[in-house]
Amino acid sequence: MLLEGKVAVVYGAGAIGGAVARAFGAEGARVFVGDRTGAKAEALAAEIEGAGGSARGLEVDALDAAAVRGFVDAVAGEAGRLDVSFNLISVGDVQGTPLVEMGWEDFMRPIETAVRSNFLTVNAAVPHMTDGGVVLFFGGSGDPVRDYSIGGFQVALHAVEAMRRQYASELGAAGVRFVTLRTGGVPESVPADFEGGEQLGEALAAATLTGRAATLEDVGAVAAFVASDRARTMTAATVNVSAGALIDQ
User: Fold this and answer.
1) Of these four, 14, 95, 121, 202, which has the most CB atoms within 10 Å of its CB?
2) What is the pLDDT of residues 201-233, one digit of tens each?
């Protein structure tokens, strides 16, 4: 197993966070899931346990500094170590409204949420990564979206990427790796009640070079590999899981 003996914390029990947590558990990691809705975290942990993994779910607000610090300290105290941290909470972005028609609060919410939550979760995790560790980010940044208004979301991704570069530069000597996963969109992560969801999924697949967009299982498998020691030379980098929808420069 890729992550045998590793301890991982995952913030966000949604579609992609859940997929990554399941993959970590399947590869032998002891997984601690934190979500603002404790019941969601507990249900995900129970699913991982039911599949033969080891997991616990807890209510954690990733925007609350004291809650994050307490969560991570408790995990490290119980497990005796911390190896992997992954944050994928919802950032509250508003899409479909042009910037010139958007209010400041709606524009800034995803930026502030993404930057604050990643800052808090990374800073809580790193002191416990005494034998080195891995921090995974999600989203990446690329060319602006030209055919759809996505508010402050793309700006948030660029801000988080800048943070990832800085963290990687400062903490490389301590053996902590920082890697971002980029997908270009995962159709399975679109809520079933999302208006136009089926058409969106088809568009995401059509934008790839292979004719098939990444699945949740694909994302989880790549995340588990990147978090493992087999990827120990990968840091200050993005990993493209987009099937060519995003073309690296």
Assistant:
1) 121
2) 888 899 899 999 999 999 999 999 999 999 999
Residues in the chain, pLDDT under 50: none
pTM: 0.95
Residue 191 CB burial class (10 angstroms; 0-12, 13-18, ≥19)? exposed
Inter-residue contact 88 to 138 (CB < 8 Å): yes
pLDDT at position 193? 83
Quote the pLDDT of residue 172: 97
Chain-centre distance for alpha carbon 124: 16
pLDDT (0 to 100) of residue 148: 78
Confidence at residue 178, expressed as pLDDT on a 0 to 100 scale: 98
3-state secondary structure the chain: CCCCCCEEEEECCCHHHHHHHHHHHHCCCEEEEEECCHHHHHHHHHHHHHCCCEEEEEECCCCCHHHHHHHHHHHHHHHCCCCEEEECCCCCCCCCCCHHHCCHHHHHHHHHHHHHHHHHHHHHHHHHCECEEEEEEECCCCCCCCCCCCCCHHHHHHHHHHHHHHHHHHHHHHCEEEEEEECCCCHHHCCCCCCCHHHHHHHHHHCCCCCCCCCHHHHHHHHHHHHCHHHCCCCCEEEECCCCCCCCC
Distance of CA 83 to the CA centre of its chain: 15
* Distances, alpha carbon 97 to alpha carbons 136, 148, 209, in Å: 30, 9, 29
